[in-house]
């Protein structure tokens, strides 16, 4: 068939109708279940001639793997997992399917490549650890308007196990796509309304969790959190499931119940149930939770009840969280704030996305989220970011008291310049700024230290991060895989 005319547009000359659209079949996956997902590109008004191409990029959450690494998408080994292929709806069309920047060993399960951490460029041009762009090029023939290209994630025809959804049941995220409608032209991204949302369902619950405050006082009402979780700790409370709570140590009243026990369900669209507890005597209080079918049960952490208002209390927080705003993380920032407050039962949360990854708009959005999720007396948010300096200064998470502060990351200023700028802004008062060094021994490599402690500034460095998802920063571990 004769190919449609090949225009030579500028990057702004094609309309949304010319670019076509992308759909997804299915548009949902359940964590832990292997399957096949088809991203179907439907040609726009110009069709696609030989030499044209499309790009498809799944949400980065779908590629996140264990140990803060990425699992590889690959187009060369049809018998192995995460194999991707492509097919056209029109006879006589030949396609070349490839994963951009794919290396021969990226998907091989051995000690060097099982946990892929090398960043790759996405469709938007930014480098991300969890980015895998599939490119499909028409090598022969052409496609007319409404013809399709199927990009098959988890093609099982050659013996591959398929593809599996991510570890984290994040909020729905859009698939990215771009198209090059000529042989020599540039790729143009599909508008948001022409790209599908990809949904993730948690696996069935494997446990319940009950979180109490660590310290309370007699007669002082406080909240406990009840969550049902899947094997990867995703919120997973099936509709209709009921959980019975009972005081198994100490004296306390649950949610006004006269007998000391109560049954709860999870409100619609919520990630957990919140129950009011009132201690009735000093000592320790523990709560037991059990699902109505008896399969899931747990005992809470201990709550130490004082006879009067205690002078000091123990609070729990997370001061090193990353989201999709960072080059080495995934998932909507809203999910991170919500999980900290509604599932983990934390009292403090400090989002610390990489400053060098943040735009001015991103920083503004993070400030907005801090304000939206802040609950006085219940959940404190700390505005901050990670300032990743090179040796000898090291990595520091920077937090500001209150809801505002400047974004000065490692690409803008050395640590000494950052400190001088803060001092100038605050008139020499640094009590409203905290910097927390981490990775002090460069992820366990004693020959490559990350922080020179002779540069320690006690005005800012009042605490240090000892342990994180990377491991223990206090001790060198020669065989650390991180």
Question: Shape from CA axes?
Answer: globular
* Total DSSP helices: 4
Structural class: mainly beta
How many strand units? Answer: 34
Main β-sheet, in a few words?
A: 6 strands, mixed
Mean pLDDT: 87
Kindly estimate the percentage of residues that lie in beta strands according to DSSP: 25-35%
Walk me through the structure.
The chain is mainly beta. It is built from 4 helices and 34 strands. The chain has helices spanning 16-19, 333-342, 360-373, 415-425; strands spanning 21-25, 28-30, 37-42, 53-57, 64-65, 69-70, 84-88, 94-99, 120-121, 127-128, 133-140, 148-153, 173-174, 176-180, 188-189, 197-201, 207-211, 215-217, 222-229, 243-249, 252-254, 261-264, 273-279, 283-291, 297-299, 303-306, 317-321, 348-351, 380-381, 383-388, 395-400, 433-438, 467-468, 471-472. The longest helix has 14 residues, at 360-373. The protein is globular, with a radius of gyration of 26 Å.
Task: Give a short summary of the structure.
This protein is mainly beta and 482 residues long.
Write the layout of secondary structure elements.
Blueprint: H1 16-19, E1 21-25, E2 28-30, E3 37-42, E4 53-57, E5 64-65, E6 69-70, E7 84-88, E8 94-99, E9 120-121, E10 127-128, E11 133-140, E12 148-153, E13 173-174, E14 176-180, E15 188-189, E16 197-201, E17 207-211, E18 215-217, E19 222-229, E20 243-249, E21 252-254, E22 261-264, E23 273-279, E24 283-291, E25 297-299, E26 303-306, E27 317-321, H2 333-342, E28 348-351, H3 360-373, E29 380-381, E30 383-388, E31 395-400, H4 415-425, E32 433-438, E33 467-468, E34 471-472
Parallel strand pairs: 2-16, 18-26, 27-28, 28-29
Antiparallel strand pairs: 1-3, 3-12, 4-11, 4-14, 5-6, 7-12, 8-11, 9-10, 13-16, 14-15, 17-19, 19-23, 20-22, 20-24, 21-23, 24-25, 24-26, 30-31, 31-32, 33-34
Helix pairs in contact: 2-3
């Amino acid at each position: 068939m004769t190919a449609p005319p090949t225009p030579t547009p500028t990057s702004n000359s094609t309309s949304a109708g010319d670019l076509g659209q992308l759909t997804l079949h299915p548009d949902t996956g359940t964590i832990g279940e292997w399957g096949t997902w088809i991203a179907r590109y439907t040609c726009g008004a110009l069709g696609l001639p030989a030499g044209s191409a499309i790009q498809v990029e799944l949400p980065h959450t779908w590629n996140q793997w264990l140990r803060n690494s990425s699992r590889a998408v690959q187009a060369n080994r049809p018998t192995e997992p995460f194999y991707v292929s492509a097919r056209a709806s029109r006879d006589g069309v030949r396609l070349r399917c490839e994963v951009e920047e794919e290396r021969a060993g990226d998907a091989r399960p051995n000690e060097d490549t099982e946990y892929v951490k090398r960043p790759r460029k996405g469709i938007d041009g930014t480098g991300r650890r969890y980015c895998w762009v599939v490119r499909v090029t028409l090598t022969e023939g052409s496609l007319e308007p409404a013809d399709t290209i199927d990009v098959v994630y988890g093609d099982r025809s050659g013996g591959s196990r398929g593809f599996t959804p991510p570890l984290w049941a994040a909020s729905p995220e859009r698939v990215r796509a771009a198209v090059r409608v000529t042989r020599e032209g540039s790729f143009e991204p599909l508008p948001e309304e022409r790209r599908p949302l990809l949904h993730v369902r948690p696996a069935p619950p494997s446990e319940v969790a009950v979180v109490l405050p660590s310290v309370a006082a007699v007669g002082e009402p406080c909240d406990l959190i009840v969550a049902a979780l899947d094997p990867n700790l995703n919120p997973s409370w099936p509709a209709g499931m009921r959980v019975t709570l009972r005081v198994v140590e100490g004296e306390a009243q649950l949610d006004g119940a006269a007998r000391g026990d109560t049954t709860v369900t999870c409100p619609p669209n919520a990630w957990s149930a919140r129950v009011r507890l009132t201690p009735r005597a000093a000592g320790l209080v523990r709560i037991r939770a059990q699902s109505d079918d008896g399969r899931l049960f747990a005992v809470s952490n201990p709550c130490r009840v004082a006879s009067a208002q205690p002078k000091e209390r123990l609070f729990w927080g997370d001061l090193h969280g990353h989201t999709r705003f960072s080059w080495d993380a995934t998932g909507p920032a809203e999910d991170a704030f919500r999980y900290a407050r509604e599932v983990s039962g934390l009292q403090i949360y400090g989002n610390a996305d990489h400053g060098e990854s943040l735009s001015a708009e991103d920083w503004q959005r993070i400030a907005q989220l801090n304000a939206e999720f802040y609950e006085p007396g219940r959940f404190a948010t700390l505005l901050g970011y990670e300032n990743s300096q090179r040796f000898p200064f090291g990595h520091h998470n920077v937090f500001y008291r209150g809801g505002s502060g400047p974004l000065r990351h490692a690409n803008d200023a050395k640590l000494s310049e950052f400190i001088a700028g803060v001092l100038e802004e605050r008139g020499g008062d640094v009590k409203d700024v905290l910097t927390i060094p981490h990775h002090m021994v460069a992820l366990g490599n004693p020959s490559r230290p990350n922080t020179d402690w002779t540069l320690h500034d006690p005005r800012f460095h009042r605490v240090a991060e000892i342990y994180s998802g990377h491991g223990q920063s206090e001790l060198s571990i020669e065989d650390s895989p991180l």
